[in-house]
From TrEMBL:
Keywords: Cell inner membrane, Cell membrane, Cell shape, Membrane, Transmembrane, Transmembrane helix. The lineage of its organism: Bacteria, Pseudomonadati, Pseudomonadota, Gammaproteobacteria, Lysobacterales. This is Rod shape-determining protein MreD. It comes from the Bacteria. The keyword RNA-binding does not apply. Involved in formation of the rod shape of the cell. May also contribute to regulation of formation of penicillin-binding proteins. It is a multi-pass membrane protein. It comes from Lysobacter niastensis. Its main location: membrane. It is found in: Cell inner membrane; Cell membrane. Belongs to the MreD family.
């Protein structure tokens, strides 16, 4: 499939990730919400590094900050840190089996939580709840589904069915 045929997939997937981040959840489940934008961005950084890099991560983070009403620049910083690490290890990560990829993504999501906690600590914001640290585990478990769904969308395999 040529790149021009799949050019809609990137913006649509990022927009869908933002919408998933806005869906209402019960109060007890809020801290367990996976970081959908990071998962989708991780997919694009691994599979299409020529189109998606630090700039896209930064812009997506600013859009998320505006969408979710968080501190302006916080998610942009978090996503750029994640994108930098992914770019550095992309060549290895791309050829990992799905289980090892999921573990690596879980580590990146945990690193994201650490960056968020440090930002909140520096700013004097309240400490996150202990459930806050479970979201990377949920993201790690969802990674194979996200990866396969995104691959299907990007490669247009859904048209053949």
């Amino acid at each position: 499939m040529s790149r021009s045929n799949a050019s809609w997939a990137l913006p649509v997937s990022l927009l869908l990730a933002l919408v998933l981040g806005l869906l209402p959840l019960p109060v007890m489940l809020q801290p367990l919400r996976p970081y959908w934008l990071a998962l989708v961005l991780a997919y694009w950084l691994i599979e299409d590094p020529d189109r998606v890099g630090l700039g896209v991560a930064f812009i997506a983070g600013l859009a998320a900050d505006l969408t979710f009403g968080t501190l302006f620049g916080e998610q942009a910083l978090r996503l750029v840190v994640m994108a930098f690490i992914l770019q550095r290890f992309r060549a290895r990560l791309r050829f990992f089996p799905m289980s090892q990829q999921a573990l690596a993504i879980g580590g990146l999501l945990l690193n994201d939580r650490i960056v968020a906690a440090v930002i909140h600590f520096v700013l004097g914001a309240p400490s996150p709840q202990h459930e806050f640290w479970a979201a990377p585990l949920i993201g790690m478990l969802l990674w194979p589904l996200v990866f396969l769904g995104m691959d299907t969308m990007r490669l247009g395999q859904w048209k053949r069915r």
